[in-house]
Amino acid sequence: MLSDYFGCYKSPQEIAHNVHNYTVPTANDSGGLVIWGNLRFERMKFVRREFGRNDTEIQRALKYPHTAVILQVNNGQHWVVATKKNLIGGDYRIIDPIDGKSKNCLATYRNITGAAYFEGTIEEVLPPMKLNYDLMKRLSGLLVICPDEHGRLYWVDMEGKKHNLGGSPAEVQENVAKLALGVSRNDLNGLPWG
């Protein structure tokens, strides 16, 4: 799921067929555990593995579009993709690879027993924008801003390529100020999402 998010999709079968991604059986255990550092993807990399529940680090990873976290749940028996911290209570919204549905983590699974963190880049090509040509020419692609499904903001250039506006509110504000130079409020009102 994360490889798809970062634009370098590998199927579960492709990952599972690489024996170097898993531990071998020993006298003390049956093997088959993921060797996180051996996972290789074109546009994402494993950063670290944590045991236990570290809400500070999980929430930090969820703030930025170039980072992602998967949670180990159900006493280490399953992994899910965290998407956001719920505003009330100590639960997280997750996408469960079993059914692909969004749900509350602790309402579905008993506990969070670990996490794995990843970093990557997201540069996807969007379909051409249907905007007034004169407006697009004046904007020169600089202030066509769109959110993704996680609410993160991107700048879309004239070719339809997305560029991250930054990970923190200060970075976004600074980048938007640079891009908005010479763009009027009427120009902004001409955008389809108003």
Can you give me a brief rundown of this structure?
The chain is of the alpha+beta class and 194 residues long. It is built from seven helices and nine strands. It folds into two domains: 2-120, Cathepsin B, Chain A (Alpha-Beta Complex), CATH 3.90.70; 133-189, no CATH class.
Describe the structure.
The structure is a single chain. The protein has 194 residues and is of the alpha+beta class. The chain has two domains: 119 residues, Cathepsin B, Chain A; 57 residues, no CATH class. 23% of the residues lie in helices and 26% in strands. The protein is built from seven helices and nine strands. The strands form two sheets. The chain has a six-stranded antiparallel sheet. The protein is globular, with a radius of gyration of 20 Å. It starts with a helix and ends in a 5-residue tail after the last helix. About 10% of the residues have low confidence.
